[in-house]
Amino acid sequence: xxxxxxxRSSMPDYDEYCREIKKLWDSHWLTNMxxxxxQLQKDLENFLDCPHVVLYTNGHLxxxxxxxxxxxxxxxEVITTPFTFASTTHAIVRNGxxxxxxxxxxxxxxxxxxxxESLITEKTVAIVPVHVYGNMCDVExxxxxxxxxxxxxxxxAAHAFAVRYKGISSANFGDASMFSFHATKVFNTIEGGxxxxxxxxxxxxMNDMKNFGIRNEDSVMYVGGNAKMNEFQAAMxxxxxxxxxxxxxxxxxxxxxxxxxxxxxxxxxxxxxxxxVESNYAxxxxxxxxxxxxxxxxxxxxxxENIVARRYFYPITNxxxxxxxxxxxxxxxxxxxxxxxxxVLTLPLYADLSIEDVDRICGIxxxx
Length: 368
Ligand code: T4K
Prior knowledge:
The protein is an alpha/beta fold. It has 2 domains: 14-102 and 109-242, Type I PLP-dependent aspartate aminotransferase-like (Major domain) (Aspartate Aminotransferase, domain 2), CATH 3.40.640.10; 244-366, Aspartate Aminotransferase, domain 1 (Alpha-Beta Complex). It is built from 11 helices and 15 strands. The chain has helices at 14-27, 35-48, 59-69, 86-93, 139-149, 202-209, 231-242, 244-262, 295-304, 335-343, 355-366, and strands at residues 52-56, 77-80, 98-101, 124-128, 152-156, 164-165, 168-169, 176-180, 193-197, 214-216, 219-220, 268-270, 277-278, 284-288, 344-347. The two termini are 20 Å apart.
């Protein structure tokens, strides 16, 4: 039997992609904000109902650039969560800022907004919350706190492309949101990412930042790097965007089947279905809380059947070796995140996963 991996990239028809990139052979224009790049940017601004979308070569550099664009004072504190991919915390630290780790709530794994205020000090300048698995953070509470304490809010929305809260696109909350368009995401440009925001004044700096800080042939404004999305990436995005609604509809059917099979079983905790949120069905996390001996046994039982689930997110970032020096590090400071990281598995999920395979995966978990 073929191996089932945690996800599988969505791809357009081969011929559709070839038609899209044919233009690149005609023009010899391969990168540096060419026609495909401009087209994808417009398509995304429409799709996301967002006035400004700036494209990047990947989500991580997009996040690094938008944090840099906020021009926050060095060594200032940024409140964030450790239950995320390495990228979130690294982007903060690589900007010379200090991450302060807030715990998550156990129902949807996003930042616990009731614990943010006690972490705010005179050094706090920003919050970087994560819409983990596509679940939305409590954007209203975060918005109020940011207003009260005059903090920037930059969402790591890597998992939340095409998600809406009360009908509003996830691109439109906080000062900015970063999406990842990596091959493993609901919408991919092979590698890729974007920063989305409403503020007109950010446009120039976000564009300069990804192009060595160069404003024009005469002026270099910032110490920027190279984080431009190339034309082949943008072409993949244009094609994939055409099919996104179908892809999400297929994912929904798979997620509903997982829920049918696993909901209500003692010791299996599924992510809360959030009210007022239109989901993108990005990941299917399951927390094994006393169901059987432990999560790792289930991981290896699945592996014996050629099924690869993943422990997103273990280890949590505040326990990383590279952050041992931080006074704010230590997984004991975020007990809910530590608990979930020790027990979570994200099960295989992609548009073409068959219902039979979903049933087989659930059978292995439930019948062991
Ligand atoms: N913030 C958050 C919250 C994130 O989750 C991420 C990325 C970022 C920021 C940064 O965004 P990017 O800079 O990546 O745009 C993967 C992804 O590389 C990473 O994008 C993602 N989060 C993270 C959660 O997962 P790995 O090391 O687990 O990926 P890998 O290579 O093991 O792939 C997982 C599975 O995906 C494979 O078993 C099969 C499938 N796959 C993979 C690739 C590379 C495909 O079907 N096609 C492919 O091309 O990190």
